[in-house]
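Late entry, evening session. Most of the bench is empty. Finally got around to the prediction I had been postponing all week. Sequence below, unchanged from the version circulated by S.P.
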Amino acid sequence: MKKLVIAAALAASALAAQAAEGVQTIRAEVNGMVCAFCAQGIEMKMTKQAATQAVFVDLKNKVVAVQLKPGQTMALDKFKADIKDAGYDVVKAEYVPQTVAAIKAQYVKK
């Protein structure tokens, strides 16, 4: 039974890794978000971008994650400009090979 459980866990890990392969997500730390309305505004603005597949905004941790559609790109400068135009400051932004769901799971369980 233990071998079956371990095998299933390894298979699930392999599938998750394959699913995340090729995923391009921008993860950023954003200052200036102080309320749910702020978070909702950023989420709406980023969702309207043609390259966006999924968005996660964590108000408490001041994190914004934008997963891009397969084959799509978004320059970090454009991402930062969009956030700045919405009235917020990007402290740090980087591409990460994680889905928005995986990033959300990191913060939701805290």
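Two things to note before I forget:
The beta strands are 25-31, 52-58, 63-68, 89-96.
The chain has one domain: 23-108.
Will write this up properly tomorrow.
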